[in-house]
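Encode chain A's predicted structure.
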Amino acid sequence: MTNNQIIRNEAARLDPATLHAIATAHHTPDEIAAIAAACKTTDENGNEQPATVADVEIMLAADELHTFDYWKQHGKTVKKGEKHLVCCYLWKYTTKPSKAQREAAEAEGKEAAPDPHYYPTKSHLFSCLQVESSKPAPAGRFGSTAAIIEYNKKLAAERKAAKAAKEAAEKAKAEAPAPVIIEEHHELPELVHVDPLPTKKAAAKKKPAGPNMKELKNAFVKNYSRLYQTDDDHESGEFCDAVDKFDELSANDPQFAATVQKFNKYMGDLISSDREAAAFVMALDDLEKAKIPEMVPSVQQLCFA
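Encoded structure for chain A:
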């Protein structure tokens, strides 16, 4: 027999009142009657016959009988003071080897292999009416009826006070004098258009004009002839200074370099020798000196013999 069959046979031994109480814990009498009308039972000889309400109550009650461990796994615990309704042997599954198997394996110096099997164990069954939720019920908000009455009185007083305050505020608002509104008008002065002041354009910087090529040529020929006649006059140092100045200004002064190029173009020839370079620098110096006005001696500077 299976465990369900064993429990159903044990449930049939309970008194009808207990069976009815357990069966109707989750089913109404009408539901039980409907189940009975749709079911059939089989007697010991295998003959089918219509099920009765008592048969259905036994079946439903058997489904509500379980062990302590079963109820615990489903979040229930047996109520304090309750005793089991049914005590019977049920099949329990295990993989542990039997005592004889363990002793035999130990004699051979081996470990006993697992032995899956069912064995009968004594079980105590409790109905759904004997258990309760294992979670404690939440504490009540009020300890007594008197506490509830006092709380309701408090709420009524608070509502009454709030209503009175609202009415007082509305009355004060209605009796308050109307605010005086003063309007001020300001006229803006007429705007007069003023032309912006004329701005002077910054005078463009004039690039310094280069020397007159004709004058430069005359001064160049004059200095070149003098250097040629004196064989460059190396001892005076004037020649060497002029050559060094030509090299330095040609490399570092763009305006000087432009003047040299302009002079070369004017002459149709290039400045290629040190004498020509010195004569060119001396010619520029002569033209610059010519621009400086000659000082006229004052009366005090004149010496009368």
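The mean pLDDT is 85.
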